[in-house]
Design goal:
This protein has 212 residues and is mainly alpha-helical. The chain has helices at residues 10-18, 26-49, 58-92, 102-137, 143-168, 175-207. It starts with 9 loop residues before the first helix and ends in a 5-residue tail after the last helix.
Length: 212
């Protein structure tokens, strides 16, 4: 079986996620959701580009699709990066609690465990920007796919942030942890509302209803 989690079948990955194995966990699931969000953005752009009606925008749409595919691949890679980032932390928790080196080992391992979910947040912001473009540029027939991508992207963003905060909370007062928390909160504050705007517009277009 392929050692990379990102190369497992959907069935195998889900079964492993549901098992008692420590990884993949929430971080890996969030990375997969983000990858799916970016893939939907690519699909909307690719299908639009393939239609004669949008021939004059074909090049721009293909570029949008390529950028979304790159984000999707990067997010998929974070499934394994997240699992690997947890290993040093798991090892540090096994150190004797009264050993002089344990506190520093835990601090370093905790910050390491934050790196993949932080990368996920940044990638989700990139995917979100592409979804905003797709909302304006893709065919209206693909509006629901863009909306689904935005909903998944928001979920991935919030899930990724939880995987940052669950670690940084164990390092109160640590400058490195505080910097990570500040960046995570800034990304949430910027992108959750923007992704919500996409889904609201899609719901409004599909149902004819507005939220007031």
């Amino acid at each position: 079986m392929d050692p990379l989690l990102q190369n497992r079948s959907c069935e195998d990955f889900t079964a492993l996620l549901a098992s008692s194995a420590p990884a993949p966990g929430g971080g890996g699931a969030a990375a997969l959701a983000g990858a799916l969000a970016a893939a939907l953005c690519s699909m909307a752009a690719e299908l639009t580009a393939s239609r004669k009606k949008y021939a004059e925008r074909k090049e721009a749409l293909e570029a949008l699709a390529a950028a979304a595919q790159a984000e999707s691949r990067a997010l998929l890679a974070l499934i394994d990066a997240d699992a690997e980032g947890f290993l040093p932390l798991a090892a540090a928790y096994k150190l004797p609690k009264d050993a002089p080196e344990t506190a520093e080992a835990l601090r370093r391992a905790t910050l390491t465990a934050c790196q993949a979910p932080m990368a996920l947040l940044r990638r989700c912001a990139g995917a979100g920007a592409l979804l905003e473009r797709a909302l304006e540029e893709a065919s209206p027939a693909l509006l629901s796919d863009v909306g689904c991508g935005a909903a998944l992207c928001r979920g991935a963003l919030e899930a990724g942030a939880m995987n940052v905060f669950v670690n940084t909370r164990t390092l109160p007062g640590d400058a490195g942890a505080q910097a990570l928390e500040a960046e995570a909160k800034a990304l949430l504050g910027d992108w959750v509302p923007r992704l919500e705007r996409i889904t609201r517009r899609v719901f409004s277009a599909l149902t004819g209803e507005t939220d007031g």
